[in-house]
User: Fold these one by one.
Assistant:
Number 1:
Amino acid sequence: MEDPPFLSNDQILRYGRHLILPAIGMDVQRRICNSSVLVVGAGGLGSPVLQYLAGAGVGRIGIIDADEVDISNLHRQVIHSESEVSNPKVDSARDSCLAINSSIIVETFNERFSRSNAIELVQNYDLVADCTDNVSSRYLINDIAVMCGKPDVSGGAIGTEGQLTVYNYKGGPCYRCLHPKPPPPETVSNCSDNGVLGVVPGIIGSLQAMEILKIVGQFGEPLSAKLLIFDGLSCSFRSMRLRSRSPTCDVCGDKPTIPNVLTDPTADLIDYNEFCGSCHVELDAKDCPSVSCEEYKSIVDQGDEHVLLDVRELVQYEICSLPNSINIPFAQMKERIGEVFKEIGQTDIDPLFGKPVQPVPVYLICRRGIDSLSAARLLLSKDAKNVINIRGGLLQWHRTIDSEFPLY
Ligand SMILES: Nc1ncnc2c1ncn2[C@@H]1O[C@H](COP(=O)(O)OP(=O)(O)OP(=O)(O)O)[C@@H](O)[C@H]1O
Ligand SMILES: [Zn+2]
């Protein structure tokens, strides 16, 4: 490999505190300045990754994200600011990177990282940083990184915990070696459903930036075949050894079942949404009666007798709720099913005939209409009667019925 060019006087001044570090010095800094990194996702993790890479002088940074800045992003996505709300995240992130360091090149892609652009993008950079928040993107980024022979620096943060590792680095394992099959979609959580303490992706993203700099600058010991787990509540870090590269891995093993589209132009990439089951969330499911928010509103206005069961977690219920609702979180329903039946009037016995009375309708609501659908299905599977899901949940209520109802 050709030696990277010497640093200019401006660069020596700018990176002086790196240059005097024995672990870095001129050679490492020159390699950093000559490197290119693709950052997928300019959200909670992507923010510190991008800020530190720009500050450290990574010569060419690619940013891909199809999302726009939302006010609810700002507690953690510190690369964006209030004035950027509703603007594309990639534009806001690029401007922040260039405000930190105008001597670098920032390339932006206001689109999703997908089967159609993945190979071309990853091929064009030295390394890919996975700063996304969903399983199908993780598999796609991993597989393409393997096919292109690039390391994948991967972070994750949810609630008050985070994790970090480096995949596909110098013969180390890839994501698929460790997770050959995706988790069931209903077990996967995200920030929007479960919340995240803003500092946690800040910490993990900063560590991701550290790993990236070590790899492109060729110093230190990257976190390959190890997983770092951070618990924000106790402020503790744990590092676990991971298994080594698996010879039976579907993408990097001895006989990969997923063809390398780079070396085999006739092959197609798999459908990652289908593989992860993420496209199977059927919200207007035929197996479960449902009403729109407008329909539910007219039931309330007519004064029809019914039960409104809000299945969100208590912390969410305490933020806001519709009048006359009862709260039983979906997560507790299975264990408390007897109690749930009592509370929603499904066990009432007619005193005259000794038979169960026809229960009043039970309408289920949650934030987006997904947990309430699962809860309705659970109740129906236990023979509950007259159970009806409210489609779109409280977000839809805010949009179509009452714009004063809090949005979170
Ligand atoms: N396949 C993908 N290609 C490009 N960007 C992606 C992809 N998947 C996820 N992202 C981006 O990664 C970022 C992840 O950010 P983060 O986890 O902080 O949550 P968010 O999606 O911005 O917000 P919230 O979960 O609160 O709605 C988002 O900006 C999202 O658009
Ligand atoms: Zn593998």
Note: The chain has 17 helices and 13 strands.
Number 2:
Amino acid sequence: MKVASVQVEIKDDETKEQRILRVESILDTLKGYNLIVLPEIWATGYFSFDRYKEESEPIDGPFVESFSAKAKALSAYLFCGSFVEKDGDNFYNTSVMFDPQGRRIASYRKIHLFHYGSDEGKLLTRGHEVMVVDTDFGKVGLATCYDLRFPELFRRQVDLGAELLLVTSAWPHRRLMHWNLFNQVRALENQCFLISSNCVGTTRGTLLGGHSQVVDPWGVVIASGGEQETIVKAEIDLTQIKHIREIFPQLKHRVLTGSSEWREDI
Ligand SMILES: NC(=O)CCC(=O)C(=O)O
């Protein structure tokens, strides 16, 4: 299975429309890929909080429509990253997954909004639904950036059958060490493949970290971007998940120490 993560550069002097056109032409080079992943709020720019409300769209708006058409044209699964979704009086950080026919098969509203040097928590409403979606190649868990810090979200996805974890992000360079660790650890502890897409560039004074990754279920980074706009490409074999879970059945050895069922005396 051929996968690609598009590491988009965010520039303050580029409009949403210009960036969408640019990314669409990058996607046009990815014919033959089975799954493509894009970053978090890349069209508006994650740190352009003043543009969030004016550039928000409903889930059936032009942003989502255009990537539905792109998934169909490429005949690929496309996780088109997130955008600012408007639903009534509320705004969400919503990511969307399309199948190769261009059907919207899942949308995920970021559960853990980011509050540190970010207006996200003030402007947006958090999501409440853990998202695992069925695809032709297995079940896929969807997550967004700061979610990476919360292992229980990913473990819940695994409990729901996820074997492949997709993470759309706008993670700053100053915490790159955390980013690299979390990418590897979330894949390793859950014995899943993980594909992340991060942004690069400097936006509103923040340098974004890049280093989008494809990590295998043994925690090995099999492909990674640097700090420039690029496409991280890899070929992955999902049968590796079953194999690793068989030879090293760590997920079967869980003891529910965090649950009310846990008792110290047994
Ligand atoms: N966009 C984000 O959620 C940023 C998260 C981040 O920078 C961090 O967790 O550190």
Note: The radius of gyration is 18 Å.
